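REQUEST
  id: r-88c1
  op: predict_structure
  target: Transport permease protein
  payload:
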Amino acid sequence: MGMTQKQETIHKHFFSDMSVMLGRSMRHIFRSMDTIITVTIMPIAFMLLFVYVFGGAIQTGTANYVNYLLPGILLIAIASGISYTAFRLFTDVQRGIIERFRSMPIAPSTMLWGHVLTSLVSNAISVVVIILVALIMGFRSSAGILSWLAVFGILALFTLALTWVAVIPGLTAKSIDGASAFSYPLIFLPFISSAFVPTRSMPLVVRVFAENQPVTAIVDTIRALLAGQPVSQEIWVALAWCVGILLVAYIFAMRAYRKRVS
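RESPONSE
  id: r-88c1
  status: 200
  body:
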């Protein structure tokens, strides 16, 4: 009975401490909204460029190119947004905030969870803004409520996976540039996928890579859901990629955290 009460106390403190850390990180976000604005502007600029400049020359087999393009744009926004998680965490490390919190009676790792959940919220805001802009540009969806929930669930899982990837350089980087530079390949990855053009139009080597990397499976799944079409086995591939990246990144992030605080 005593052990059960102790476990309940630990869990209670963990969630209360995590809510405090989340509130701290969210205040930083709302005090400097330029981070969300910056993250949102670039994907919107890509969407405008591809729809109104390149869209007429790209053959996707769909009548409305913005419908085809939107899933990839959302992934680019998330890949761009998680770089700020690494930046904020690196700043905390350099200022000695981690050591300061470790000296206080708070549950371990709650500071990390505060940053991770803040990333989830801030990226969700960016996603909603981009979808609203896409609607103005002519995006239309026949998806039902369950399909939309599935889309947001996949995007949330993708965000969590990449955010835990971002935690690693945030804890281990030697410079601010090193903390955020890891996101560049992630932002570029959708360009070598089915996000902008069908993979069948690509040269063989590029097509093989594009068809077997995580973005293509995720983009194809979200596109089918938004179109109200049945999803193929791609949804399981997409979920497997997200869960796999999440688990591996979490393990290495926690290892880096323990090394940092030891």
